[in-house]
Amino acid sequence: MPPSPTTITDPDDPRVADFRDLKAGDRRPGSERGTGPVIVEGVPAVQRLLASPYQVRAVLGVPGRLAALDLPEGVAAYEADKWVLSEVIGFRLTRGVLASADRRPPADLDALLAGPDPAAPRRLAVLEALNDAENLGSIARSAVALGVDGLLLDPRCADPLYRRSVRVSMGHVLALPFAVLPDWPGGLDRLHGAGYLTVALTPADDAVDLAEVDPRAHPRTAVLLGAEGPGLTPEAQRVARVRARIPMRAGVDSLGVAAAAAVAFATLR
């Protein structure tokens, strides 16, 4: 049987310290760079957390909401009314339940590039300076839905396990392995050595139509995406094997990076 939740009546109760003042945590130095527990919001996302390799620390929700979760033995479960819950986390939570989990380190880069079967087709998303947590979460959600096997991040990217990234991804980012390319953009040569065609997305007129990149001819493909606004740097575009654009109606110069990512993942599936 799932554990019976303990009722919390004091917002300062140390047992719910993982969830305290989450908005202040958003502003804390280093909060987007891999510190503190992973925070997951909402029943569907917490269910995905429970199915992931992440070790759950605690769950906190309003009365009745925890009953929707199949909590394993040993997970601390707490419930509080909506007013106490709001005082604990620092804002009104419409999703009714949160969970905290221990962080996992980034994947080994070589293992991520090879995958479980080095001969199998493989798709990766490679992000440069993508420091908007919500865009990163949206890209992760599309990646899982559209057959992308992992994320590679340059050193300036936001933390994919940051609360807002996890929330926007609906918890799907927890199923997506990620690694950091510390040498950027020179580290892209490691992808080439592992057999990947690197495709840099750009709206430039001299780029090829993305539809011309045949995924059957390139069973291992890595899509490069830059930050909203500036896009990929010229240095990253020079290292990539192909510069490709999404054809668009005249007068529209580009899509937002999350939308562009979804189109590219679907096109190269």
- Work out the helix count: 9
Bin the strand percentage: 15-25%
Number of extended strands: 12
- Annotated CATH homologous superfamily of the largest domain: SPOUT methyltransferase, trefoil knot domain
N→C terminal distance: 41 Å
In spatial order, strands of the major sheet run 8-7-6-11-9-12-10
Low-confidence stretches: 27-32
How would you sum up the global shape? elongated
**SSE run:** EHEHEEHEHEHEHEHEEEHEH
Question: Rounded to an integer, what's the Rg over CA atoms?
Answer: 20 Å
Mean pLDDT: 91
**Class per helix and strand makeup:** alpha/beta
Characterize the biggest β-sheet: 7 strands, parallel
CATH topology of the largest domain, anyone? Alpha/beta knot
- Helical proportion? 25-40%
Q: How many discrete domains?
A: 2
Task: Offer a few descriptive terms.
single chain, 269 residues, alpha/beta, 60s Ribosomal Protein L30, Chain: A, Alpha/beta knot, 2 domains, seven-stranded parallel sheet, five-stranded mixed sheet
Task: Characterise this structure.
- The chain is an alpha/beta fold.
- It folds into 2 domains: 96 residues, Ribosomal protein L30/S12 (60s Ribosomal Protein L30, Chain: A), CATH 3.30.1330; 159 residues, Alpha/beta knot (3-Layer(aba) Sandwich).
- Helix content is 26%, strand content 20%.
- It has 9 helices and 12 strands.
- The strands form 2 sheets. It has a 7-stranded parallel β-sheet. A 5-stranded mixed β-sheet has the order 1-4-3-5-2.
- Strand 6, helix 5 and strand 7 form a beta-alpha-beta unit.
- Helix 5 packs parallel to helix 9.
- About 2% of the residues have low confidence.
- It holds the Pfam family SpoU_methylase.
- Keywords: Methyltransferase, Transferase.
- This is tRNA G18 (Ribose-2'-O)-methylase SpoU.
- GO terms for molecular function: RNA binding; RNA methyltransferase activity.
- One of its GO terms (biological process) is methylation.
